[in-house]
Write a structure and sequence with these properties.
Number of helices: 11
Radius of gyration: 20 Å
Mean pLDDT: 91
Number of strands: 0
Distance between the termini: 64 Å
Largest sheet: none
Order of helices and strands: HHHHHHHHHHH
């Protein structure tokens, strides 16, 4: 049985630990850089997902990025791990690095995510700048403009804005939209709770 068949069989039988070992071995033996990066990314995703070893997965995402620094995929995977670990400052760092080599299609999404991270860190001016950059992108302009609007809420209007967002979230059928609305409300609440 060749490697590809072996990996498919391990995945279909849910042999996650054995699959992780096989992917690590395959990445060590692979000479082609692009294929090696794919093995490392797959291994990192497996460790972070099914095996719930996000911290260990970071090493493989970093190795993949070192092999192809022009690729943002390993950085975005690392961002997800850091976010899961609650390390928002590292999320900011990874997103800033991602912007250096992001394609125009990804740039707006990364700037939107960076604005969110900066807002979570309490750096509202930098968040606004990042959202302004995301507003220039067709894919993210709507969400970015809403985030900018959220940042402009003042002491007198923050509670009504939170109430609006929470009420709107109840009406959303899409869970991603619902979560985004709730997070926007939470960011506003956090900003004014500290004041």
């Amino acid at each position: 049985m060749d490697l590809k068949q072996s990996l498919v069989e391990l995945e279909t039988t849910l042999e996650w630990t054995a699959l992780a070992e096989a992917l690590e071995q395959a990445s060590e033996q692979e000479q082609d850089v692009a294929a090696k990066v794919q093995y490392l990314l797959r291994l990192g995703r497996l460790l972070n997902g099914q095996l719930m070893q996000g911290a260990r997965a970071l090493r493989f995402f970093q190795n993949a990025w070192k092999l192809q620094p022009e690729s943002v995929a390993p950085l975005l995977e690392a961002r997800d791990v850091y976010l899961g670990l609650g390390r928002i400052k590292m999320v900011e760092t990874v997103l800033r690095r991602s912007l250096e080599s992001a394609t125009s299609e990804l740039r707006g999404k990364i700037q939107l995510d960076l604005g969110d991270a900066l807002q979570d860190l309490g750096n509202y001016e930098a968040a606004d700048e990042s959202y302004q950059g995301a507003a220039d992108s067709d894919d993210t302009s709507f969400d970015a403009l809403l985030a900018i609007e959220d940042l402009s809420v003042d002491d007198g209007g923050f509670q009504s804005r939170i109430d609006e967002l929470l009420a709107e979230s109840i009406d959303q059928a899409d869970s991603d939209s619902r979560v985004r609305l709730i997070l926007r409300a939470a960011r506003i609440a956090k900003r004014f709770a500290a004041a």
